[in-house]
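Consider the tokenized backbone below.
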């Protein structure tokens, strides 16, 4: 049985109507809402064929049909419109991303929030673990006579701050000197290689007078380096999907979705290991625990280098074209709206 032009026209109309309303689509409703020039009986016969071909399913409680995963895949591959966003939406994205351009973590967290607002879906943004990420700056900032703040900035723009309580008093001159020495020694080296270095011994060899101060800060310095390698997952809009009929009317589906979101380690692994570019997986294309959802992801870059991914997770009934356009535009603009600013010397 061929998927001819008429069947394609009917299938496309059913998918569009179901995405819009969330209600199973019947032949009579379809004939009234779309001028196809054929009778409801003919539409009904074509719908039966489409169901037999695996493109439609027939809920027991309704006379109408709903798209299958196979239908959504066809829709995404052949019919999805990812035309440019309207200028006002593009401008809003640029303006909002620019608000947190001084720190990558804040920018990415803000991007997840913005994505949720613009799509009404549960959104996420993730920075994968990258052992080859390089250090750019190391600074120690005075707080009080026994407390300093360690600031690390990576080449990819990740910034971490850690308050350290010292066992001895320090001078601002010593802190400044330690910042310069450590930045000189470890700038442009991978974080994993710095973690393998004997930092205290380096100070004993190069700057013995600071060795005892180095002994105070090295444990916290190492823990902060390790944290810099960790995957950060920012999520937003948890409750958005619960305004949709498929979740309002199905408590078990709602519980399963919440459990999926709560298992963040698994979600991180799934997202990090996805292919590069704009990727859409639907229902049974996902892992066993994600059969009822669709996942859309795209990469984002900083200074031309791949840094992480962002996207949405939600029901298979989603506006794939519109959502993909928003994700794609946000990901493409992160590198343009984010700048790594060097500390003042």
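A designed sequence for it:
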């Amino acid at each position: 049985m061929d998927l001819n032009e008429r069947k394609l026209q009917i299938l496309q109309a059913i998918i569009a109507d179901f995405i819009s309303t969330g209600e199973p689509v019947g032949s009579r409703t379809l004939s009234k809402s779309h001028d196809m020039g054929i009778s409801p009986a003919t539409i009904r016969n074509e719908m039966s064929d489409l169901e037999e071909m695996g493109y439609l399913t027939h809920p027991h409680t309704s006379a109408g049909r709903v798209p299958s995963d196979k239908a959504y895949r066809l829709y995404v591959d052949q019919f999805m419109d990812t035309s440019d966003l309207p200028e006002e939406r593009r401008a809003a994205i640029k303006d909002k991303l620019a608000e947190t351009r001084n720190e990558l973590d804040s920018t990415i967290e803000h991007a997840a929030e913005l994505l949720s607002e613009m799509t009404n879906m549960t959104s996420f943004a993730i920075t994968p673990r990258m052992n080859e990420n390089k250090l750019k700056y190391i600074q120690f900032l005075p707080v009080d006579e026994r407390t300093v703040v360690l600031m690390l900035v990576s080449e990819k723009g990740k910034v971490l701050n850690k308050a350290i309580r010292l066992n001895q008093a320090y001078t601002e001159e010593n802190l400044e000197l330690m910042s310069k020495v450590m930045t000189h020694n470890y700038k442009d080296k991978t974080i994993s290689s710095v973690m393998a270095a004997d930092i205290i011994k380096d100070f004993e060899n190069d700057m013995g007078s600071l060795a005892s101060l180095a002994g105070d800060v090295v444990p916290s310095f190492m823990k902060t380096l390790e944290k810099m390698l960790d995957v950060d997952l920012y999520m937003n809009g948890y409750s958005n999907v619960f305004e949709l009929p498929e979740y309002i009317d199905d408590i078990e589906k709602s519980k399963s979705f919440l459990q999926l979101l709560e298992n963040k380690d698994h979600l991180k692994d799934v997202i990090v290991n996805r292919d590069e570019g704009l990727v859409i997986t639907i229902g049974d294309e996902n892992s066993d625990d994600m059969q009822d959802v669709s996942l859309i992801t795209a990469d984002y870059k900083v200074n031309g280098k791949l840094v992480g991914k962002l996207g949405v997770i939600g029901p298979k009934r989603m506006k794939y074209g519109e959502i993909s356009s928003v994700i794609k535009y946000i990901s493409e603009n992160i590198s343009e709206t984010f700048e790594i600013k060097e500390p003042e010397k």
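Confidence is low (pLDDT under 50) at residues 340-345.
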